[in-house]
Structure formats: C-alpha cells, structure tokens
Amino acid sequence: MKKSILLSLVAILSLAIYPTSHALATKHVITVQNFSFNPSSITDVVVGDTMRWVWVSGTHTTTSTTIPATASTWDSPITSSNTSYEYKVTVAGTYNYKCTFHAASGMIGSFVASTGAATLSVLPGNQNVSSGAGSVVFNVTSNSSWAATSSALWCTVTPSGTGNGTLTTTYSANLSVTQRIASITVTVAGIPSQIVTLTQAGAAATLSVSPGNQNVGYTSGTTLFSVSSNTNWTAISDQTWCTVTASGNGDGTVTASFSENQTNAVRVANITVSVAGIAPQVVTVTQDLSSVSVVENKAGSLSIYPNPTRANFTLSLGKATNGTVEISVINAIGTTVYNTSVSGSESYSFNFASLARGSYFIRVVSDEGTKVSKLLLIN
Hints:
It is built from 1 helix and 35 strands. The protein is mostly beta strands. 24% of the residues are buried.
C-alpha cells in the first residue's frame, strides 16, 4: 500500500514539475524499483530533453548499453542513498540501458530521441560595413540543415550548413556614392525563412575632367571633354557663344558647342563641372580669332596672300627696294617668333608650317618706314 502511494506521488510530481510539451526542454521521469523501469520504453524524447531515473525501492543501476555513436555513455547507481540520476540527450537516436544487477531478470529499458521541431535563428539582423571590399559573419543557431542565398551579385554568402554555425558574407568595393543593401535569406525546411541584411556605405565622390583646354578654330563647331566620376555631375559655361552638356552621371562626356568667332580677338569660355560635396573642376575652350579680322590685309602698299593660310604665303611690298628690309613675325602676346632681312625684290614667299595655328603680326621695316599687317594661320 505504501509503495503504491509512493509511486502515485512520484508520477503526480513528475507531471507537475516536468510537463510533456516540447515547447521547452522536457524531463522524462522513470521510476526504478525491483526488476523494472517504469516506463520501460519512451518514444517522445526530443534532443535537449533530460532523462531522470528516480529510486523507489531496491538496489539498482541505470547503465547504457547500445546508444548513438556520438552520444555519451552513463552508469549510475540508483539506491536509497543515491535516489536519482539525470542524463541530458544531445544526439538523436535509440538508447538502450539496463540495471547491471537485474538485466538477466529483464530489467532493461529504452528511449528514442528525435531532433524535434526545426529551429532557426540568425543574428545580427543587419551588418553595416564600409565602402571597401571585405567580409563579415552572421551567427546561425539551428538544429537542422540550412541554406543561404544573397539578393545581390556583389555580396556572396556561405551556401549551406548544418546546426549551429557561421554564415560568412563576402562583398566587393562599392564604387558608387549611393549606399546599397544585400538581403540574405537563410532557409530551413518546414519553417519560415529568416532574412538578414548587409548595408554597405557609399564611396566618396570623385571627379576628373580632361583635357584642361581645347583649342578650336574660329568657325563654329563642337569639341569634347572626358568626365570620370562615380556620381551625378553638372556642367555650365560662362559664355553665351559656348553651350555645354548640362548634366550626366558617372563616366561620360561634356560636349561644348561654339559659334563662329567674328571678333578680332581670341576668346575663352570657362566650363565648370560640379559634383556635390567636392571642389568643382574648370576647363576651357579657347577659340581663335575670325578671318574677318584680317580681311584688310594691306598696310599702305604692303599685302599678304593668301590670308588666312595653312602655311605658305607671299608678302608683297608693292615695289622693289634697293635697301635692306627687315621682316619680323610677332605672336599674339608680343613675342617675335621669326626674323629675317631681305632686299632687291618686290615680294617674298614664306612657309610657316612649324608655327602654331593662330593670329600673328607681320612687321616690315624699310627705308619707307614701318608697316604692320595681320596674318592668320589655320588648320
């Protein structure tokens, strides 16, 4: 009678203290008495649960016999002086055990453990990284096999794993100024996937414009500047005779369109290319003066033809001179680039292919005085 009451109390206490739900780890209570384990067979054990043997009467042991290969063995007395023993289940499979003293009398038991409901946790939910290339790790907690994928080609991930582990994400450098985000999806069969993110900062803005200057002829036309950048840019010209591509994004070109220069002076347009957050760059279009400025190419009896010219021209003095005539060529900034002395003829031929294209002054000094006329070398 007393034994029956004790068994009932043990059973009631085990249900009250160790519920059978697997929402949390469960303790399975097995009572130990003469020649029996009760219950002798349990099939609803989940990895993470605990097996608890409780003494009722007699002198016994709980001793493992055949168990999963990677599980820990056990061998513990269950007596009036050692009234209980607990074993935590860490590996799925079938476990067999015995009482060393009474196994021949059939005092054996078993339990079967499964992995239970699949679990998955991935932390942290987001990793912030710099614009440079690198790698970062997410921690995966699971009792199952899992797979991982990335939504972005610039971010690759560990493709799969089993149980607890790490998920390594490797990312390339972000050359754009814009922040970018990769979504990483981790999946376990039978339960909802988890999505974490990798947020990569944008790069510092860059800008380079070349060449620094474009020399163009006096006629209307277009010329190009190359823009190298990793973001949006704008361009403006400070001259109405020169219009430019208003804006662009990334690497590109600025097209400068210019009208004919009908003035008697070289003119310059400043083109400013800007990117937010950094210093703008200024390039120039330098346009040669118009041939209109040298239509009047006679100074007294002095004439030049053809004018404009590509290289060859004739200088006519109007009449032959007996004395020495000094002929000088002066560029637009006042530097004498050619000088010679001649005599005895009315006209002289020259080839100035070696001189830069542009506007020059021809100065003739003779016994009749000094005369100056303009010369335009064109492409």
